[in-house]
């Protein structure tokens, strides 16, 4: 739906609510695509949301809650009785229902489970951590035996009319329910009726175990271009399936976390909430710790300039080129960090490659720094700057670029080896570090090369 249309529909919903026609507003809202419903729901204020929710039918409410962030779902169902919540959870996908139950207080979750009709599908999922394959998987999948024929499989699908997200993958299991193969719908519908699953299945099944980290699951699905991946236990027994939409959510969360950390923002208070539903105090709390840390770090830059106060007073022109040098160094370091972190995320770089990464980035820095340094010398000479000072700026440019690339290439890898998220040391933090050390390089060279100092 176009942004203009969304704005128009939002105004219609608000007008109906303000005029007391809440049922009509709800009926209008549920006619739209589910993602548009979520967008409009988030744009409404809390009072308007509270008026709308009781008028949703169970199925529509379940669809809405499945697409919302966990904290917002908890707020939405805070006043629901155990019976109401059980009815809603029965309509949700097992993995989504398990996520919500896992966030409820233990006694409330127990009461809701006791009243659910589909509790058996949800209970097995509650024992897995959220950020593992077991926590992501759904128990809604189709498993067949190896001697099942194509005709039997198609008749089975017709009889159950599967309301699941991945009916295009059929999994083949043995008597112990161990995963032994997978059949795509294309192979199913194009094979003769008497053909068995064993004859058309792919036996080398790509799967993950229940304890596999969600980032590794995302890498597996991306690497092998899968729309779903089966989850097995330590014995190879099929216990669930992870679908592409769950992995898209994982990738989105990981990217969001990295972007926030690169911007020196603590992800925890805001990562699970859309922009317009983030509370003012949470936004401030997410930014303040790193802002304070960077503020303290920037005092290092001021300390260095103060240490060379006499030199700056003697050659005032030294201060003219400080923004140029620290800006170039910060940008060079940020470029290197971004390149290295991306390569690490794609597993193109491993910790043992640290020396080769450094050597490669040093050569790049030498080339770039030399071009920029020579350009700076020519530019300053054209400006009428004395040659010793121009040479100081040019050489500083080269050395700062090499230093920035060295820091940018080594620190993320070393951070990873120490179990620290590399994105924590990128962005503003890296720039702050390179700013201070870059100034130290610049003024030290000035003392060596400028005779008047």
Description:
This protein starts with a helix and ends with a helix. α15 packs across α16, α17 runs parallel beside α22 (428-449) and α19 (322-345) packs across α22 (428-449). It has 22 helices and six strands. The radius of gyration is 30 Å and the shape is elongated. The protein has helices at residues 3-18, 22-29, 34-43, 46-52, 58-66, 70-76, 82-91, 94-103, 106-115, 119-122, 133-136, 150-160, 185-190, 197-200, 214-223, 244-262, 280-307, 309-314, 322-345, 354-383, 387-417, 428-449; strands at residues 143-145, 169-173, 179-184, 208-209, 228-232, 238-243. It folds into three domains: 3-129, MgtE N-terminal fold (Alpha Horseshoe); 143-249, CBS-domain (Roll); 279-449, SLC41 divalent cation transporters, integral membrane domain (Tetracycline Repressor, domain 2).
Please outline what is shown here.
This protein has 453 residues and is mainly α. Helices cover 63% and strands 6% of the residues.
Q: Keywords, please?
A:
453 residues, mainly alpha, MgtE N-terminal fold, CBS-domain, Tetracycline Repressor, domain 2, three-stranded mixed beta sheet, 22 helices, 63% helix, 6% strand
Secondary structure layout plus pairing:
Elements: H1 3-18, H2 22-29, H3 34-43, H4 46-52, H5 58-66, H6 70-76, H7 82-91, H8 94-103, H9 106-115, H10 119-122, H11 133-136, E1 143-145, H12 150-160, E2 169-173, E3 179-184, H13 185-190, H14 197-200, E4 208-209, H15 214-223, E5 228-232, E6 238-243, H16 244-262, H17 280-307, H18 309-314, H19 322-345, H20 354-383, H21 387-417, H22 428-449
Parallel strand pairs: 1-2, 4-5
Antiparallel strand pairs: 2-3, 5-6
């Amino acid at each position: 739906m176009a942004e203009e249309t969304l704005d128009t529909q939002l105004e219609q919903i608000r007008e109906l609510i303000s005029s007391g026609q809440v049922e009509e507003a709800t009926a209008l809202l549920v006619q739209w695509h589910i993602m548009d419903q979520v967008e409009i729901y988030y744009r409404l204020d809390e009072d308007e949301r509270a008026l709308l929710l009781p008028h949703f039918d169970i199925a529509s409410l379940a669809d809405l809650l499945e697409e919302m962030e966990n904290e917002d779902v908890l707020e939405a169902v805070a006043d629901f009785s155990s019976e109401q919540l059980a009815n809603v959870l029965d309509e949700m996908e097992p993995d989504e229902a398990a996520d919500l139950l896992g966030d409820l207080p233990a006694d409330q979750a127990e009461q809701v489970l006791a009243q659910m009709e589909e509790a058996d599908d949800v209970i097995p999922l509650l024992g897995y951590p959220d950020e593992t394959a077991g926590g992501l998987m759904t128990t809604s999948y189709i498993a067949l035996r190896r001697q099942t024929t194509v005709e039997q499989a198609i008749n089975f699908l017709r009889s159950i009319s599967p309301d699941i997200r991945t009916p295009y993958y059929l999994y083949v299991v043995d008597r112990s329910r161990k995963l032994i193969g997978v059949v795509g719908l294309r192979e199913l519908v194009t094979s003769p009726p008497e053909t068995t699953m064993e004859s058309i299945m792919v036996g080398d099944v790509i799967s993950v175990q229940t304890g596999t980290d969600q980032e590794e699951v995302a890498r597996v699905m991306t690497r092998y271009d899968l729309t779903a991946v089966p989850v097995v236990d330590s014995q190879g027994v099929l216990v669930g399936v992870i679908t592409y939409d769950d992995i898209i959510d994982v990738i989105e969360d990981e990217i969001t976390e990295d972007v926030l950390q690169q911007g020196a923002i603590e992800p925890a208070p805001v990562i699970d909430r859309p922009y317009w539903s983030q509370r003012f105090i949470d936004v401030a709390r997410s930014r303040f710790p790193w802002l304070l840390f960077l503020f303290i770090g920037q005092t290092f830059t001021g300390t260095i300039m103060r240490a060379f106060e006499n030199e700056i007073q003697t050659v005032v022109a030294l201060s003219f080129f400080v923004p140029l040098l620290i800006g170039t160094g910060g940008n060079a370091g940020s470029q290197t960090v971004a390149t290295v972190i991306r390569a690490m995320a794609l597993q193109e770089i491993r910790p043992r490659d640290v020396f080769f990464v450094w050597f490669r980035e040093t050569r790049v820095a030498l080339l770039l720094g030399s071009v920029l340094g020579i350009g700076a010398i020519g530019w300053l000479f054209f400006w009428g700057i004395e040659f010793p000072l121009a040479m100081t700026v040019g050489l500083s440019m080269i050395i700062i670029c090499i230093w920035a690339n060295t820091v940018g290439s080594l620190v993320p890898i070393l951070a990873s080896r120490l179990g620290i998220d590399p994105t924590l040391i990128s962005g503003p933090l890296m720039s702050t570090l390179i700013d201070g050390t870059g100034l130290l390089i610049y003024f030290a060279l000035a003392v060596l090369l400028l005779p008047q100092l």
